[in-house]
């Protein structure tokens, strides 16, 4: 390994420039196709992407929407979840998971995570069910799916819907089934930093239920069918054709990019073990395909380590520094520090380091050498 040097080239957390250069001509052709068509909202490009993502995810239907947040919001609306309803979910997630519930007047009921996978702990769910509970919303965090069999069994026993927050998990698998295909609805994000990311915001709802698919499709366009005749009060959740065209180009490369992330994750494990660096690495639950949307390491010295990486121009990021139950805007839910021990510890101790598919072995060696030097000091 080379010694860390401030003069060495930076290693970003994610290098979208490298990805773009590899598909530049195809992307430009796709953009030109949309521009020539002058169809910019929904239309043939979106319909084609819906079919392709649904097939990729093992689902009967896909409905393109304006963002991952709006995917969650419209999925909840399709189930009729609103004021006074409760939905069980995790406090260790991106804001949209809980925020979409509160926007509809529903109450997020949090359940702590499995400290190894960072996903919701199914063993804690049943105790949180009340007469007001309408659904369970597991989050497939960092690219590894939640333990879905017990979650679905609990939902069936209590007649609850299941919405998979699969924003970080397109192509991830659980016992041979893809993310978004197990629950009643699956919600994906195409934010640019995702494994399948667009050139702006975008999202997708997947389902195997024809009635739910039709309801989501109706709600994303102000509940109108036909145009100007409104059956429901929906929203403007439509996907742009330009985003769909870019995503269709990228989808063809997604499995190769996932393989690159998996190879980089395996190399990190080998390098970190060989250097005897005292960092926890991602736990593989052994129930399927991990797509490594992030590679999460863990240490009680997280903040100092992050500063050391920054000094050496190595990208890192905290996902997430404050769990949902401690966010100021959710103060009226009544949660306090200490309510969800494992979520709070994860927020204090975890750090994402670069794992993107174009990351080179030399760059990884440099990252690991900086990690080794930090702990040696």
List the helices and strands and how they pair.
Elements: H1 16-37, H2 44-56, E1 61-65, H3 68-78, E2 86-89, H4 95-103, E3 107-110, E4 133-137, H5 148-158, E5 161-165, E6 173-174, E7 177-178, E8 185-189, E9 203-207, H6 210-219, H7 241-251, H8 254-274, E10 295-298, H9 302-311, H10 341-349, E11 350-353, H11 361-376
Parallel strand pairs: 2-3, 2-4, 4-5, 5-8
Antiparallel strand pairs: 1-9, 6-7, 8-9, 10-11
Describe this structure in words.
With 377 residues, the protein is an alpha/beta fold. The protein has 2 domains: 20-111 and 118-251, 3-Layer(aba) Sandwich (Aspartate Aminotransferase, domain 2); 253-376, Aspartate Aminotransferase, domain 1, CATH 3.90.1150. Helices cover 38% and strands 12% of the residues. It contains 11 helices and 11 strands. The chain has helices spanning 16-37, 44-56, 68-78, 95-103, 148-158, 210-219, 241-251, 254-274, 302-311, 341-349, 361-376, and strands at residues 61-65, 86-89, 107-110, 133-137, 161-165, 173-174, 177-178, 185-189, 203-207, 295-298, 350-353. It has a 7-stranded mixed sheet, with helices on both faces. Strands 6-7 form a two-stranded antiparallel ribbon. The protein has a two-stranded antiparallel sheet with strand order 10-11. Helix 2 (44-56) packs parallel to helix 7. The longest helix has 22 residues, at 16-37. The radius of gyration is 21 Å and the shape is globular. It starts with 15 loop residues before the first helix and ends with a helix. The relative contact order is 0.18. The model is unreliable at 1-6 (pLDDT under 50).
């Amino acid at each position: 390994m080379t010694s860390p040097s401030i003069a060495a080239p930076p290693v970003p957390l994610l290098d979208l420039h490298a990805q773009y250069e590899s598909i530049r001509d195809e992307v430009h052709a796709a953009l030109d196709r949309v521009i020539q068509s002058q169809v910019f909202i929904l239309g043939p490009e979106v319909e084609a992407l819906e079919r392709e993502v649904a097939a990729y995810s093992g689902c009967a239907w896909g409905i393109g929407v304006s963002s991952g947040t709006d995917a969650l919001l419209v999925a909840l609306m399709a189930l009729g979840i609103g004021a006074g309803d409760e939905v069980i979910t995790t406090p260790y997630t991106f804001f949209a998971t809980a925020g979409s519930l509160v926007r509809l007047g529903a109450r997020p009921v949090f359940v702590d995570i499995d400290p190894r996978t960072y996903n919701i702990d199914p063993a804690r769910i049943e105790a949180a069910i009340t007469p007001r509970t309408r659904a369970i919303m597991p989050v497939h965090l960092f690219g590894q799916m939640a333990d879905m069999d017990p979650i679905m069994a609990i939902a069936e026993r209590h007649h609850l819907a299941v919405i998979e927050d699969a924003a970080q998990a397109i192509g991830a698998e659980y016992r041979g089934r893809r993310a978004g295909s197990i629950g009643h609805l699956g919600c994906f994000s195409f934010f640019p930093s995702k494994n399948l990311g667009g050139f702006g915001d975008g999202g997708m709802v997947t389902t195997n239920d024809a009635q739910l698919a039709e309801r989501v499709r109706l709600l994303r366009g102000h509940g109108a069918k036909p145009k100007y005749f409104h059956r429901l009060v929906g929203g403007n959740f439509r996907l742009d054709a330009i985003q769909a065209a870019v995503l269709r180009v990228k989808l063809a490369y997604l499995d190769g990019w996932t393989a690159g992330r998996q190879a980089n994750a395996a190399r990190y494990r080998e390098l970190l073990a060989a250097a005897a660096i005292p960092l926890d690495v991602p736990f593989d639950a052994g129930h399927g395909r991990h797509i490594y949307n992030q590679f999460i390491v863990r240490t009680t010295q997280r903040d100092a380590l992050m500063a050391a990486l920054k000094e050496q121009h190595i990208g890192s990021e905290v996902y997430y520094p404050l769990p949902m139950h401690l966010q100021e805007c959710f103060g009226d839910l009544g949660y306090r520090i200490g309510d969800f021990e494992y979520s709070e510890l994860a927020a204090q101790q975890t750090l994402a380091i670069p794992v993107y598919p174009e990351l080179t072995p030399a760059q990884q060696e440099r990252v690991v050498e900086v990690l080794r030097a930090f702990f040696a000091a």
